[in-house]
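Translate sequence into structure tokens.
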Amino acid sequence: MDQLKMHTPDFSDDNIAKLAALFPTCVTESRDENGKLKRAIDFDQLRQELSGHIVEGPQERYHLNWPGKRESLLLANAPIAKTLRPYREESVNFDTTQNLFIEGDNLDALKLLQETYLGKVKMIYIDPPYNRGTDLLYKDDFSEKTEDFLERSNQKDEFGNRMIANNESNGRFHSDWLSMIYSRLKLAKNLLTDDGAIFMSIDDHEVENLKKVGCEIFGEDNFVAQVVWQRSKKGDSKLVASVHEYILCFVKSKVAVIEKGKWRRKKNGVNEVLKFYADLKVKLKNDHDKIRSAMQAWYKSLKIGDPRRSHKHYNCSDDRGLYFPDNFHGPDDGRTSRPRHDIIHPLTGKPCKKPSTGWRWDEKKTKWALDQNPIRIHFGLDENTIPNRKSYLAETSFEPYPSVFYRDGRSATLEVESLVGKGIFPFPKNTEILQELIELTTKDGDLILDFFAGSASTGHAIFNTNLITRQNRKFILVQIPEEIKKKNFATIAEVSKERLRKVGKKIIDENPNLGEPDKLDIGFRVLKIDSSNMAEVFYNPDALQQDLLSSLTENVKDGRSNEDLLFQVLLDWGVDLSLPIRKETIQSKTVFFVDQDALVACFDKGVDEALVKELLKFAPMKIVFRDNGFATDAVKINVEQLVLQWNSDPNHRDVEVKSI
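Result follows.
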């Protein structure tokens, strides 16, 4: 019976396999640190294959480089033997939610997510450390070998520290920051869908470097914009007041994004205008003349600068909606061949006056507009007035996202303080801005990732967006448990989770009919990164001495639950970690069912043929057991035969069985 590997993939091996497929003559063999043969690439031969195209030696060329870049790439490719352990007591709606909150190092998290979420994330938003000289950076160890990655449980120094302050006096001030972000972006790109996008908040200290790293990883052709967010209107400075931040945007493939459609956002104030209009229609019983007068009076009552007032020309109404009479004259471009067909006035029956430049629409489109109910052409009192086309607010309410905008940065702080208290989390991100980005690039059912979750602004914004749109976007948030020791919170991760709980409760309190999981998902499943559930005997069986074998027959670490094992199996098999899980007792054994009956797992000991026969009746796609969970070796052999017999029946769906 095959065993699961129980560690993340080694991307170096994947890259060698890709090169070998392209250049089989470049494949050779070398010996690793233990003297064992392994497949490798002959780079001299590869240079020969690419002769005339490769840049060799110390020749000058345009590229971004820094001390530690190669080590950062090595770190991104190296596998780890870690897992995600579920924490039901810290979760909300654990069994039904499709949202994940991962607590731990985001580099580890990105590696653990690779197989399961490869090419499945529609949008990534991150707010990494800004590297101002006091920000904490993830302390990555570039010196370890692959074997050390498989053995170690946590990336910490001898004092247990996981993050370090990147002081400006550090000789690698920019290099350390670049190495930190480079390895994470390399892994993050793999998770994006072909039409996926990544947004990265940053300030002046690293914006140039981050853009260059982004261009290297995603490609210059896939750079979208460097958005400037003005967060205040004044600031203190000895020279120039810095009152802005940046949001860098890249896509996985600009071609794929454009094929799916243009990015457009709702114009500011449109929702409020349409809501006021909808209320008027009910109040005035669809009397369109009275509605127009009421809309004009309402616009006039608004203060200058109010975004709703910018739509004041939309004051006419018909059964289709709110519109304004926009001309459809032909452009005054000197052309004399513009359409000049007659448009008959519906009351007088006479041809209407024509614009001097002719009509913008040809006769076919004009006929289409007149055949609609209600018609899409606005007429004057008689034929002496040139008709206009009806431009409906609901149909013209979207616009391209601007590369420069103003949004008060203080509102985000007040929002967080109202949920978790004052002075706990400084400089949170603005949820309104995040909601705009989410609506701009995602739709119902899409997955959004934030691996620098902070106070969970992204999760908050997704809850709000789903509430407004009545849709269910899903999220994965990752936050390291960085110590803060403020009030009732020991770590930033605790702040993140509490904010999500408070936001979800507030939404349900204000919208009690939306609380069911199938209507609005305000839950999240907490998973924490930890060392593998498997004892070291699982990874290094050859290193054991003969006299120790009797004490190491158990390959699972003490203290690990069956649900811990289940989630490591989900990771190893590439199964969505947010799928619904149910637990049943069958023949006195605890059995987990994932995604209805797609995957069945039993990690109890004493498994026999009768239990396996019962599980096969559920017709699962996959079944997994503990390797030493079978009652006897004979039972294990018999189970393999039972499965072969099951799969040989053409009426049965094949089931894959493995052990851990």
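Note: The CA atoms of residues 625 and 659 lie 5 Å apart.
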